[in-house]
Amino acid sequence: MDYYREPFYLQRNPMIGMHLTPEESRDLEYVREMYPKAFSKIQEQVERECDRQEFAGSMMFDEYPDRLSMRRIANRIFDEVKKQEGNCKKNCIHYPDNQWLKDIIMVLLLNEMCRRRQKRRPNKRPFLPPWQKL
Fold it and tell me: What count of other Cβ atoms lies within 10 Å of the Cβ of residue 116?
């Protein structure tokens, strides 16, 4: 495995990761504005949980994250979303099925984690399988 070492003055804060370029940030915000309202509420919870998980040594940045840990995180998000759904008085979003909601949470969680893992890579080269190495 190749390790890349940055000088201390170039290292990013492990709590916040690397910063997006302005173009990437605008593009991400534009796409997220197009999310359906139900998904944007879930995305907020996913981002909040990923912020809690973003620290040095977190399982989120392991080479092979554990499936059971991912399900635990998704279940915490699910519990929070259901609690918000139960506390809602007006303009509520009611999700059709619990399994559907868990699946959507897992997809959004994996997408967010993949995005954060890519931000923390020292170089911006795309991942290539071993048989396609240059």
Answer: 19
Task: Report helix, strand or coil for 44.
Answer: helix
Q: DSSP states of 50-118 as a string? A: HHHH-STT-GGGSSS--HHHHHHHHHHHHHHHHHHHHH--SS----S-HHHHHHHHHHHHHHHHHHHHH
CA distance 62 to 58: 7
Q: Which residue has the tokens 């796409």?
A: 31
Tokens of 106: 């897992």
Interval 18-71: pLDDT, tens: 556 778 778 888 888 898 888 888 999 999 999 998 888 888 888 888 899 999
Query: Which H or E element spans position 26?
Result: helix 22-33
Read off the tokens for 28.
Answer: 């991400």
Residue 19: exposure state from Cβ atoms within 10 A (0-12, 13-18, ≥19): exposed
Per-residue model confidence as pLDDT tens digits over 53-63: 888 888 888 88
What pTM was computed for the model? 0.69
